[in-house]
Design brief:
This protein is mostly helical and 125 residues long. The chain is built from five helices and no strands. The chain folds into two domains: 1-72, no CATH class; 75-125, no CATH class. It has helices at residues 2-13, 17-42, 46-71, 78-101, 106-124. The longest helix has 26 residues, at 17-42.
C-alpha cells in the first residue's frame, strides 16, 4: 500500500518514484523506532533505546539491501550514485569519530543530517 501511494504522490508532485522514495521511505520506516527510543530514554531506559535504534538500523541496512542486490539489477549512476556516496561518507565520518574518540558526538551525527539535506537540495535544485 505504501509503495502504491508513493507512486501516486510522485506523479502528483511531478518527480520520479525513485527520488520520492529515497526521501520519504527512510523517514517513514524509522520514525516509529525513533519515537520508541525517545520514550525509553525519558524513562531512563537508555540501553533499550540504543538497542532499539541499533536493531532497526541493522535490519534496514542488511536484509532489504541483500534482497535488492540479489533480485534486482544495480545501475548506480547519477542520483543513485550520489545517494550511495553520501551514505558511505556519513558512515565513514561517524565510524572514524567513534574509533578515534571512543564516543558518539551529536554534532557528528547531525552532520549526517546535513548530508541528507544536501541530497534533497540536489534533487530539487
Amino acid at each position: 500500500m505504501f509503495v502504491g501511494y508513493v507512486g501516486d504522490l510522485s506523479t502528483v508532485l511531478g518527480i520520479t518514484p525513485l527520488v520520492l522514495s529515497m526521501i520519504i521511505t527512510p523517514i517513514a520506516t524509522e520514525l516509529p523506532e525513533k519515537l520508541n527510543s525517545v520514550i525509553w530514554t525519558g524513562r531512563k531506559k537508555d540501553t533499550l533505546a540504543l538497542g532499539n535504534i541499533t536493531g532497526a538500523m541493522i535490519f534496514q541496512s542488511c536484509f532489504p539491501v541483500v534482497f535488492g542486490m540479489l533480485f534486482t539489477p544495480w545501475h548506480l549512476t547519477g542520483i543513485t550514485l550520489l545517494s550511495a556516496v553520501l551514505a558511505l561518507t556519513s558512515a565513514i565520518l561517524n565510524f572514524t569519530w567513534m574509533k578515534i574518540r571512543k564516543t558518539i558526538n551529536p554534532f557528528i551525527l547531525m552532520l549526517s543530517g546535513l548530508l541528507y539535506l544536501i541530497f534533497i537540495f540536489y534533487i530539487f535544485g
